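ESCALATION

Customer reports they have been waiting on this structure for their group meeting. Please prioritize. Original submission:
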Amino acid sequence: FTSFRTRFKMPGDESGGNGNFWWSMDIGNIHVTAMSTEHPYSPGSPQYEWIQSDLQKANARRDLVPWIIMTGHRPMYCSDVVEFDDHKPGAYFQTIIEPLMIKYKVDLYICGHMHMYERIHPVINGTVQRSGNFYVNPGAPAHIVQGNSGVFLDKEFVDPAPDWSALRLMEWGFGILEAFNATHLHYSLKLVDLLDSSDVGDEFWLVRL
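Update from on-call: job pushed to the front of the queue and completed.
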């Protein structure tokens, strides 16, 4: 991690976290809680205690910063064939961290690691809470695996697709997140092949009323 720690400066110290590894900050009307999936996060660990405290504080000030987005390197849900056993209901990451997401009403989890794109419907332990592209008061976070922006693309998904998988693509692209106000957040996938077009590869809304 030497290069990462030397070349980048994230607000770990300012947010009571751990340098570049776990930290939080407000960006406009979004509170970002960034965890490290590469460090211990089991109950009782320093990172777990920090995540719980940070989410609790963020959830208590929704009147000032209405959206909570978590981010980490690895997916909680992903239907790529590679490492599928680690990215499905019942896997360690899901059983440990998802209850905190539900308790403190995290709106969205964004990750990478797998070299593809996948949108996961708002879900609790593999059970879909809302489907479609317009999630109104979903009661659980949606998930985005945005690992299709460089290096190489993976080659195979599990078949059939899990119910919680909304869309999965192995095409180059990047995401655009827009939090318009306290009630409407929009996410879109811009594919490299569509850069000269207004079309998008995927999009959805989170609505909190």
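Sent to customer with the following note: Helices lie at 2-7, 46-59, 92-103.
Escalation resolved.
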